[in-house]
Amino acid sequence: MDVSLDNTDLQILERMQANARISNADLARELNMAPSAVLERVKKLEQKKVIQGYTTQINPATIQQKLLAFIFIRSSEGFTCSSNTAQALAAIPEVQEVHHIAGEDCYLIKVRTTDSSSLMALMRNQLQKIPNIASTKTTIVLETVKEQQQLVIPKI
Amino acid sequence: MDVSLDNTDLQILERMQANARISNADLARELNMAPSAVLERVKKLEQKKVIQGYTTQINPATIQQKLLAFIFIRSSEGFTCSSNTAQALAAIPEVQEVHHIAGEDCYLIKVRTTDSSSLMALMRNQLQKIPNIASTKTTIVLETVKEQQQLVIPKI
DNA sequence: GGTTATTTCTGAATAAAATTCTGACAAGCG
DNA sequence: CGCTTGTCAGAATTTTATTCAGAAATAACC
Predict the structure, then answer these.
(1) Which residue among B3, B52, B146 sits closest to A98, beta carbon to beta carbon?
(2) What's the CA B10/C1' C26 distance, rounded, in angstroms?
(3) Is B80's Cβ below 8 Å from some Cβ in A?
(4) Which pTM does this prediction carry?
(5) A143 touches chain B (CB under 8 A)
C-alpha cells in the first residue's frame, strides 16, 4: 500500500501527535477543511498503519513508577540473540522497551519500577530466569529532561 | 493536590493508555457507569496531571525515521552536567528523550533520524556544537521488539 | 489535447457523543 | 444530628462523528 504523505497528512500527524484527543471538528477548523475530508484522511492513515495507535501519557510517579532504568543485556557465549529472549523480555510489564542492538550486547531494555529495591527484585526474579542471559549492565536515570515522540517534519 | 487513585481511576487509565481516542461513552459502557461520571473523573485526572497528555503513535519509518540510536554523552572534565546542556539537547527535534543518568556519563539521549549518515551529520553539526560535550558513545538499534508505555497496575 | 479514472474535497443530513446541570446518595466529621 | 465533600445517574443541550451525494481537482492514458 502506498504510504506517501502530503503536507496535509503531515499537518494532521503533527497536531494529533501533540494531542491525540483533538476533535476532528477542531482539526478541520485548523486546517480550513471540511470535517469529512479530514476524517477520511485520518482513517486512511490508520489503515496504512502510519498511525499505529493513540496513547495516554501518564505521570509515572502517580502510579508508583518512580524509578527509570536502562539495562544492557548480554546473552551467554555461543547463544545468539534469540527472539525467544526478546519475547520473554517484552512480556514483563515493567519492561517498556526492548531493542535489539548492534555490538557485543544483545538487548537494551527500558524498565520502570516503583523503586530501586523493586528493580533489583525484578532483575533477580524475572530477568535472571530468562534462559541464556549472561550479564546485565544497568543505568539508572536520575532525572528525565525530555521524553516524547516528536514529529520531525520531512522536507518536501 | 491529592493524587490518590482508586480502582476505577486505574481502569480508566488502563483503557485510555491502550486507546487514547476511546469515546467517553464507550469507556462508560465498559465500566458500567454513566458517561458524566466517567468524564468527571477523566477531567480530574487531567487537572491532577496524572494524565499528562494524549499522543499519536506514528510509524517512524513512514516519516523517514528509519534509524534509532541511543547516545551516551559525557561532558568535559571539570564541567558538571548543566541544565543548559540538557536544554540544548532537548531542543533538537530528532532527540526524542534526554535522561540525566548516574555514573560517569552525564546524559543518555534517544535519537531518531532517517539513516546513519543523517545521524552522523546531526552529531557533527548539532551535538558537537553544544558546549562542554566531551565524548559520545553511540548504540545503534537494529530492531525494536517492544516500545510502548504500559500501565503496571499497583496492588491495592 | 481530450477523455477517463481516481482521488479528494465540500456541504448537508443524521446518528452519536460530549458537555452541562440538577439532584440523589453515601461517607466522613464536627 | 446537621454539615460538608465527593461521587454518581439521568435528562437536556450543544457539539461532534459519520455518512453520503455530488463537485472539483488530479493523475493516467490514448
Answers:
(1) B146
(2) 22
(3) no
(4) 0.90
(5) yes
- Range(s) for CATH 1.10.10.10 in chain B? 7-47
The whole-chain average pLDDT of chain B stands at: 91
Residue B156 has pLDDT above 50, yes or no: no
Class of B60-141 per CATH? alpha beta
Cβ atoms of B140 and B120 within 8 Å: the answer is no
Best of A6, A19, A23, A55 to substitute, by most chain B Cβ atoms within 10 angstroms, is A55
For chain A, residues classed under CATH 3.30.70.920 are 60-141
- Residue A156 CA, nucleotide D30 C1', distance (Å): 32
ipTM score here?
A: 0.89
Contact B144 A100 (CB under 8 A): yes
Cα-Cα-Cα-Cα dihedral sign, residues B58, B62, B67, B71:
negative
Reported confidence tier of residue B155, pLDDT bands at 50, 70, 90: low
C-alpha cell at A84: 525467544
Q: Does residue A139 sit at the B interface (CB-CB below 8 Å)?
A: yes
Q: Kindly give the parts of chain A with pLDDT less than 70.
A: 1, 77-80, 153-156
Does any strand D atom come closer than 7 Å to the Cβ of B30?
A: no
Mean pLDDT confidence for B21-48: 97
Return the pLDDT at A72: 95
The answer to whether the C-beta of A20 is closer than 7 A to strand C is: no
B34 touches strand D (CB under 7 A): yes
- For domain B7-47, say whether CATH 3.40.190.10 is its number: no
Which of A's residues 44-63 have CB atoms within 7 A of nucleic strand D? none
The DSSP string of chain A is ------HHHHHHHHHHHH-TT--HHHHHHHHTS-HHHHHHHHHHHHHTTSEEEEEEEE-GGGGT--EEEEEEEEEPTT----HHHHHHHHTSTTEEEEEEESSS--EEEEEEESSHHHHHHHIIIIITTSTTEEEEEEEEEEEEEEE-----PPP-
